[in-house]
Design goal:
The protein is about 15% helix and about 30% strand. The chain is an alpha+beta fold and about 375 residues long. The protein is globular and about 65 Å long.
Amino acid sequence: MKRIHSIISVFAMCSLFVAIAGCNPAPLTEADVFTPSDAVAAMLQPGDSIYHLNDFVATFMTEQGNFLSDSTPYRTRATNGDGIYLFSLDTIPTDTIGIYIRGRVSTDDYGGNFYKSIVIQEIVDGEQQNLRLSVDIGSANGLYQMGQELLIRCNGFSIGRYGDQPQLCVPSYNNNTYASSANQKIGWMPGRIPNGMFRNATTLIGTPAPEKLQYDTITIADYINVTNETEMRKMDGRLVVLKNVYFTGQYEYNGLNPCNTNSPEIDKYANVFAPTTQNVGHPQSRVISDGKNTTLVSNSEYSKFAYFYLPGADSTGIANCANYVGTVTGVLGQFRDNAKYAHDQYDWSITPRNIKINSVCDINDIVMFHKETGEPWVPQEYKK
C-alpha cells in the first residue's frame, strides 16, 4: 500500500510540475507590445477617423464647452464675460464611430516637470501640432517613453482647457474648500484620465524614436506678443529651442524682482529653479532674456533640479547670471489662471523636461557656457 501511495505521489508531483511549467508565460516579444505602423489601418472599423491634432481640437472643443451650467458652473476664473473661457469641457461621443488621434510623446516625467501629464506631437506638412494629455499615471514615462508614437481612441473622453491650455481629459469637479482663493477654484474643470481607461484606449505604434521629434528654433519675440486665442492655443505644447539666452536671476510677480539667497526650503524667492511654494503647488517661474525680450522658464518645486542654483547664481547672489549664455529647450505654454487679468507676455513660459546632473540623464534642456571663458555651466545644488 505504501508503495502504491509513493507511486501516486510521484505521479502527482510530476503532473504538478508539468502543469506549472506549462502555465509559465512565454517571454514578451516586440510584436506583443508594439503595433507596427503599417498595421494601424487594419485596426480601424468602417467609418472610424484619425484626426490631425489641430483638426481634433477644432472639431470637438467649443469655446463655452457643454459642461457650462447655472447649477454646477465652471470655476469663477473661467471667464470675465468677454466670451473667452480659460476653463472649459466638451464631452466626446461614446456610442459612435471611432474617434482617434495619433502623436509622438515629446515629454519625459523623470525630471519631475510633467507629473501625470504627457504632450504628444504630430508633424503635418512639416509643421508641429501638439496636444496635452492629462493622465492619472505616475511615472508615465515608464510605459509611454519620449519618442513613442501613440494611437488614442478618444470616445468617452473630453477635450477641455485648463488655464487656456487645450488637453485630452475627463470632467472633474473641484470642491476643495481648503485651496487658496477657494471661492474661485470650486467648479468643473479638466481632470486626469484614469490609468485603466487611458491604457485601454491607447496603442503603442512602433518603438520609441525620440530622434523623430521636431524642435523649432524660435526667438522670444515670436510668441510673447501673440494674443489671438486660436493661435495661442495652437502654439501651446510646442517643442521649442531658444538660443543665446541667459537667466537674469529674477522671478516674475507683479513685475520682475531679483531672487534672494535665502533657503529654498522656506523662501519662494530663492535663487534656484523652483523653491517651495509654501504648499500652494503652482509651477515656479524664473526669467530669461535674449538681450531684447524676456520670458519665463517654468519648473515644479517637485522636480529633481528644483533646488539647484540658476546658471551663474550661487550662495552670494545672482550677479554672475548674465555671464552664462546658452540654450533653453522645452515645451512652450501659455497659462492664464485668472480671467480678470488681461493677457500679457508673462503668461508664456518654457518648461524644460530635465537637465543633466552628474551625467545621470540623457535629456539636457538647459545648456549654458560662460560668455568669456567658454567654461560650461555645471549645476550646483543649494546646501545649508
